[in-house]
What does this fold into?
Amino acid sequence: MNQLRLILASASPRRRELLQQLGVPFEVVVAPVTEHEDISTDPRVMVAHNAELKAEWVAQRHPEAIVLGADTTVFIDGHALNKPADRAEAEAMLRRLGGRTHTVFTGLALRRESDRLRIDDGDESEVRFKPIDEQAIATYLERVHTLDKAGGYAIQEHPEMIIAGYRGSLSNIIGLPLERTKQLLTCCGLLP
It folds into this structure.
């Protein structure tokens, strides 16, 4: 019988590290798709769409493999905060998040073309920021590279500088909700 093969359709090193924690072998294939990033779109719809887009692109090229796509965004004031374009945008995002609570949404999509397997799921967590001033923002951005992170921050790097607390899945905030992912992979026979 064919061994089940898992592909992570993501360029994110954090997703790679998180998925490794589940102990299932996988490979990475990055989907060169244009993600939907309209900040006024419902964040659940946006991350679900982007996760699906990545998973389907890779699944079409590897029809026997189970492909996992994921997408994460930060949501506050009715708008998504995706990856900042530059340092000025990262500063503006941190200013906006300072002293407030926001929601982190991740969409998950599992696809296998050979038998038309389609599973969609997602998770959400809340993060509470400490009040932060301009000096704290500058210091944080000197210590943490944030241009590839939704919301312009990384909860796993120097959280003592900016984070007051969180509710829900920490791995979801980092970019891949391990609890949900483990359930999905178990449903597909990749985990016992």
In short: The chain has a mean pLDDT of 95. Residues 119 and 187 are 10 Å apart (CA to CA). Helices lie at 13-20, 43-61, 87-97, 134-143, 159-162, 170-174, 178-187. The beta strands are 6-8, 27-28, 66-76, 79-81, 101-112, 117-129, 163-167.
